[in-house]
Design brief:
Blueprint: H1 3-29, E1 30-34, E2 49-53, H2 55-58, E3 68-72, H3 100-109, E4 115-122, E5 127-131, E6 134-137, E7 140-141, E8 160-162, E9 167-171, H4 181-184, E10 187-188, E11 192-201
Antiparallel strand pairs: 1-2, 2-11, 3-4, 3-11, 4-9, 5-6, 5-8, 6-7, 9-10
């Protein structure tokens, strides 16, 4: 084989292997991300950079109350009135990609997917009730030290529900500017992409994000 051709093929082979490894790390282990919305203020602010732990999804690990997670955005940001079912208060996922190429772009490269970042407030079997600006879990008021001092939680569509099996109830810390489970319902655990591991930018905020 021509030495130049052989050298070019070796470089192509190395590049392909590197891309495969990078995609595998991103999908199965972890990946960086940038906060783009204000729904998690003041805990997380726009422009901050986070490292996301995806290993917990890979090994089907447990998520805890207070965990900050990312998940695939529902098909509808607000549950249509005709579809509201308080006996099954779950988010809609109806616009799934079809075909191998579209699924690869959506689930692996994630170039066509929208993700949300929120905090887990309730797990399966929990009774979540929002009343008088407060959040109650199984009858007990949540101690939400991560909220701004004057922040109140407004009740929306789903403000008094039981979280179904294999689902979680999520909300943003900036309750007045967050579209969350109050609007679209509970999120399937299967749609959770990652748990926030730590913040690495800005440097003066480097470290684990407190619950």
């Amino acid at each position: 084989m021509n030495p130049k051709l052989k050298n070019a093929l070796e470089w192509i082979y190395c590049i392909v292997i590197a891309i495969i490894i990078a995609l595998a790390v991103k999908y199965f282990i972890g990946t960086p991300t940038v906060v783009k919305q204000s729904s998690m203020n003041t805990t997380l602010k726009e422009g901050q950079r986070l490292w996301l732990n995806r290993w917990v999804r890979t090994v089907k690990g447990e998520y805890e109350i207070g965990d900050i997670i990312t998940f695939e955005a529902p098909s509808s940001a607000t549950m249509p009135l005709a579809r509201i079912d308080f006996n099954n208060p779950v988010a809609l996922y109806e616009d799934q990609p079809k075909g191998i190429f579209n699924k690869f772009m959506y689930y692996v490269l994630e170039t066509t997917k929208t993700s949300y970042i929120k905090r887990i407030i309730g797990k399966e079997g929990d009774h979540i009730k929002i009343e008088n600006g407060k959040v109650y879990r199984n009858g007990d008021e949540l101690e939400e030290s991560y909220l701004a001092e004057d922040m109140e939680t407004e009740g929306k569509i789903f403000s008094d529900i039981i979280v179904p099996d294999d689902y979680v109830f999520v909300m943003g810390d900036n309750r007045t500017a967050s579209v969350d489970s109050r609007d679209f319902g509970c999120i399937p655990i299967s749609k959770i992409e990652s748990r926030v591991a730590f913040r690495f930018w800005p440097l003066n905020k480097f470290g684990k994000v407190d619950k």
